[in-house]
Design goal:
The complex is a heterodimer.
Chain A lengths: L4 E6 L7 H15 L3 E6 L23 H4 L4 H11 L6 E6 H7 L9 E3 L1 H9 L3 E5 L3
Parallel strand pairs in A: 1-2, 1-5, 2-3, 3-4
Chain B lengths: L1 E6 L6 H4 L3 H11 L3 E6 L15 E3 L2 E3 L5 H10 L4 E4 H6 L11 E4 L4 H6 L3 E4 L1
Parallel strand pairs in B: 1-2, 1-7, 2-5, 5-6
Antiparallel strand pairs in B: 3-4
Classes of the chains: A alpha/beta, B alpha/beta.
């Protein structure tokens, strides 16, 4: 029996929309259920994987670096990559032209560079495709 | 693969990108063998209005080739894409059908569900 697969297209840049975390939760839930997941990160979403993201303290809230424990999208995606290295696989592709124009070259391990052709191939091979657009 | 791409957000990144990124994506999918149709709704119905898109100069730099939505739609149509436009969204914006480019298929909001049903993939951008 062909394993189930879900493809997602996401667009939001990091820290701009709850859409990103929603996508991460869907990806994690699908992987835990044994569903392979493909992600096509388009436009600002290619910056979700940038390795150079750094957490910070928050003087307004009076929190130190440790106390704030600020999440980074690159850490969340690295965690998804770990989840997606077991029986169910996570395949993450950043749109290459979007990477180039944003200078988002330095991505976390496991992230690939691709194009809309990869998105089409993912969608064709998937049980269903979900587009989470930006506004 | 038959795909209906619904485009609702308009002119969002079209200046610096020099294209509407969803119409561009649609062309790329088409070039890779997908059968793509477009449904323009909301503010994106304005893409079907005849318009001029002059370059922008900022100091010694600028945006030399801004998006021309009319041209982007024409490129898709030339390869067989059906471009649907929601009639009610035109009316709400005071846009007359005489202002539109050629080759547009006007649809009523009440027809959207039936049209969506024709496509195995419906992606709302």
């Amino acid at each position: 029996m062909t394993p189930k697969a879900l493809t997602l297209a996401i667009m939001d840049a990091p820290y701009e929309s709850a859409n990103s975390t929603t996508a991460f939760r869907i990806i994690a839930a699908a992987l835990k259920k044994g569903i392979n997941v493909n992600v096509f990160a388009y436009e600002g979403a290619v910056s979700l994987t940038v390795k150079d993201q750094a957490p910070h303290a928050n003087a307004v809230k009076g929190t130190s670096l440790e106390e704030e424990d600020h999440p980074t999208t690159r850490a969340l995606i690295s965690a998804l990559m770990t989840l997606g290295s077991a029986e169910a696989k996570l395949n993450w592709v950043n749109c290459g032209l979007c990477v180039d124009e944003r200078g988002a070259i330095n991505g976390v391990d496991g992230v690939k560079r691709g194009s809309p052709a990869d998105f089409l191939a993912m969608a064709q091979a998937s049980t269903t495709t979900l587009v989470i657009p930006t506004r | 693969m038959q795909i209906l791409n619904i485009v609702e957000c308009a002119y969002r990144a079209t200046l610096e990108e020099q294209d509407d990124t969803i119409l561009w994506l649609s062309r790329s999918l088409q070039n890779n063998g997908a059968d793509v149709s477009i449904l323009l709704r909301g503010n994106a119905v304005n893409y079907a209005v005849k318009q001029r898109c002059p370059p922008l100069v900022i100091g010694t730099s600028g945006i030399p080739h801004p998006t021309d939505p009319n041209h982007e739609l024409a490129q898709l149509q030339a390869k067989g894409t059906t471009v649907y436009v929601l009639r009610e969204d035109l009316e709400q914006r005071g846009i007359s059908t005489s202002q539109l480019v050629n080759g547009i298929t006007l649809i009523a909001a009440s027809a959207v569900a039936e049209i969506m049903d024709r496509y195995p993939q419906v992606w709302h951008w």
